[in-house]
Amino acid sequence: VRIITSADTSNVKVVQITSPFLRSLSHTRAKSGDVITIKGSNFQSARGTSKVTFGAVEATSYVDWGNREIEVRVPRDARSGSVRVQTAKGNSNIRNIVIVSPYITRASPVALKPGEQINISGGNFGRTRGTGYVSIGSTRLASTYYKTWSDRVIQVEIPTNMRSGALKVVTANG
């Protein structure tokens, strides 16, 4: 740091910034499960309690961690937005990423009988169904059960042979 006044210039002192600095992401578009490389500085040579966050979602799978480069898997619940590195020395600046994987924010109703319809809200479903599908448990719904498919809402009828299970939307992006 050098201070310049109208009368004179001060001596020079070096200031060291220790908080992490995020320079770049290997991908600005990714799917859940993709590995992205974060380049920058001051990430610390060992991860310890440091972490990478995608918005409010903390990554849980790290391929490699170094002082200048991190390889991390995009979390399943990540949404488009900011990526940040957090260490004991502070928080990094952010870089933005677009997550293209589908996600569910709401399913209604959650208790229903065969023949009734369920509305699935979320995002990144795609404007049209294409090769996308909905599954409940291990059962993938046949084409005849889709009533509506848009980027944010899917409406399907529950088949007569359906059992309870986890609801999942699968598209070409994950």
Any overview of this molecule?
There is one protein chain. Strands 2, 4, 5, 8, 9 and 10 form a 6-stranded mixed β-sheet that branches. The chain has a 4-stranded antiparallel β-sheet with strand order 1-3-7-6, with no helix packed on it. It is elongated. The termini are far apart. It has strands at residues 21-25, 29-30, 35-41, 51-54, 57-58, 62-65, 69-73, 81-87, 90-91, 95-99, 103-108, 117-123, 133-136, 139-140, 146-149, 153-157, 167-170. The chain has no helices and 17 strands. By secondary structure, it is mostly beta strands. The mean pLDDT is 92. Strand 6 (62-65) and strand 7 (69-73) form a beta hairpin.
SS-derived structural category: mainly beta
Q: What is the helix tally?
A: 0
Task: Average the pLDDT over all residues and give the rounded result.
Answer: 92
Order of helices and strands: EEEEEEEEEEEEEEEEE
- Strand segment count: 17
Q: Label the overall shape.
A: elongated
Radius of gyration: 23 Å
Ends apart, CA distance between termini: 49 Å
Low-confidence region ranges: none
For the biggest sheet, the summary is:
6 strands, mixed
Helix content: under 10%
Strand residues, percent: 35-45%
Features:
four-stranded antiparallel beta sheet; elongated; 174 residues; six-stranded mixed beta sheet; mainly beta
Give the gist of this structure:
This protein is mainly β and about 170 residues long.
Chain-wise SSE layout:
Elements: E1 21-25, E2 29-30, E3 35-41, E4 51-54, E5 57-58, E6 62-65, E7 69-73, E8 81-87, E9 90-91, E10 95-99, E11 103-108, E12 117-123, E13 133-136, E14 139-140, E15 146-149, E16 153-157, E17 167-170
Parallel strand pairs: 2-10
Antiparallel strand pairs: 1-3, 3-7, 4-5, 4-8, 6-7, 8-9, 8-10, 11-12, 12-16, 13-14, 13-17, 15-16
